[in-house]
Design brief:
- With about 220 residues, the protein is α/β, with parallel strands linked by helices.
- It has a single domain, classed as Rossmann fold.
- It has 7 helices and 12 strands.
- It has helices spanning about 5-15, 25-35, 40-60, 95-105, 155-165, 180-190, 215-220; strands at about 20, 65-70, 75-85, 90-95, 110-120, 125-135, 140-145, 150, 170-180, 195-200, 205, 210.
- Strands 1, 4, 5, 6, 7, 8, 9 and 10 form an 8-stranded mixed sheet that branches. Strands 2-3 form a two-stranded antiparallel sheet. A two-stranded antiparallel ribbon has the order 11-12.
- Helix 5 packs parallel to helix 6.
- It is globular, with a radius of gyration of 18 Å.
- It binds 1-O-pyrophosphono-5-O-phosphono-alpha-D-ribofuranose and uracil.
- 1-O-pyrophosphono-5-O-phosphono-alpha-D-ribofuranose binds near residues 119 and 155.
């Protein structure tokens, strides 16, 4: 968390501000503005989602455990850190989370990928599951759940329910834009999950879209509207 304004917004939005990080960085802010702009075409929108994911993943993955291994450089022998344990699981909520998964894989090429197909019913705004495929041994992996939008939080909560039922216990979530309603829903049911956001917006509208948000992330990424 960075500026006083961001800290105040997080404190107002979250039961537990310690479990929220809003990345406060001029590059992230600039790219978020381009994502918000309704004239940004799908090609640029996809690229921007990936860039924001890379910049914010740096914070979301800061806790990953490491241990030292011996390494011989051209100059000397030394000990240097590598990631510990089984490969982390990167779990994307379809469709929109897919672009974030691809970005994280450039940082963690040995990561294992999980897919959860969830869409929001247009009338009820409740998530409907249509696909599930997770890596083995979820109980032994650090898990990063990714989805660009944390709106009502329904999709995130359902995804987290699925992940915990699969045995995962060390779970973090990375979204591009969140709002107080989504944070509250996650913190109520999954208080241990740390959420990292690139932006925290003030509210939802009566269609359960984030305001000002960026519109429908899946449609903008894939050009389906
Ligand atoms: C979007 C988004 C999240 C969900 C967030 O997906 O990618 O998964 O909405 O809303 P919530 O917090 O209120 O659950 P959508 O359901 O539109 O599916 P799509 O990615 O297939 O377009
Ligand atoms: N899903 C989106 O794609 N955008 C929103 O603002 C809310 C849910």
């Amino acid at each position: 968390m960075g500026s006083d304004t961001t800290e105040a917004a997080v404190a107002a939005a979250a039961h537990n501000p310690d479990r929220i990080t809003v990345v406060d960085h001029p590059l992230v802010a600039h790219k978020i503005t381009m994502l918000r702009d309704e004239t940004t075409p799908s090609s640029a929108f996809r690229m921007l989602c990936q860039e924001v994911t890379l910049l914010t993943a740096y914070e979301a993955l800061r806790h990953l455990p490491v241990h030292n291994v011996p390494v011989k450089t051209p100059v000397a022998e030394t000990e240097s850190p590598v990631l510990s344990g089984l490969a982390p699981a990167i779990v994307g909520i379809l469709r929109a989370g897919l672009v974030m998964v691809e970005a994280i894989l450039t940082l963690i090429p040995h990561g294992r990928v999980g897919h959860l197909g969830l869409y929001r019913d247009p009338e009820t705004h409740q998530p409907v599951e249509y696909y599930r495929k997770l890596p083995e041994n979820m109980d032994q992996r650090e898990v990063l759940l990714v989805d660009p939008m944390l709106a009502t939080g329904g999709s995130a909560v359902q995804a987290l329910d699925i992940l915990t039922a699969a045995g995962a216990s060390d779970i973090r979530m990375l979204s591009i834009i969140g709002c107080p309603e989504g944070i509250a829903a996650v913190q109520e049911r999954h208080p241990d999950v740390h959420i990292t956001l690139a932006a925290l917006d003030p509210r939802l509208n009566d269609q359960a879209y984030i305001v000002p948000g960026l519109g429908d992330a899946g449609d903008r990424i894939y050009g389906t509207k």
